Amino acid sequence: MPDIDIWGVNVYRGLGFGDLFDEWAARSCKPSGVSEYGADAWSANTGAVDAESQAEAVRPLTQLIWDNGSARTAAGRTRGAVLFSDACTSSARSSSRSSTASSACSSGGGSGRHSRDTER
Length: 120
Fold this sequence. Notes:
Layout: E1 7-10, H1 20-27, E2 32-38, E3 42-43, E4 48-49, H2 51-67, E5 78-84, H3 87-93, H4 99-106, H5 115-119
Parallel strand pairs: 1-2, 2-5
Antiparallel strand pairs: 3-4
């Protein structure tokens, strides 16, 4: 398929990507973009949102994408990634949902304040 510039792959393989980047390099000379990856914020163990565990799961995945990035190294096999976060949908399942979370989720995002606004 010569008209394709980049392939997007949605990847959910647990706490790592396995041989994804090596496998991709063997299949195509075109770059990949991880079009979706992440971890669920909802904990079935506690029946509530567990943002700390979600961050612990996402952190190494993000590092693997960085380590395999084509902007970082000539041998890089991916051009970037999009992190899936379900914090809003997960918080809707929680009975202790705060009004701040409700407001942020209904508006489609965070508080609307930029990080530089909070530094002032």
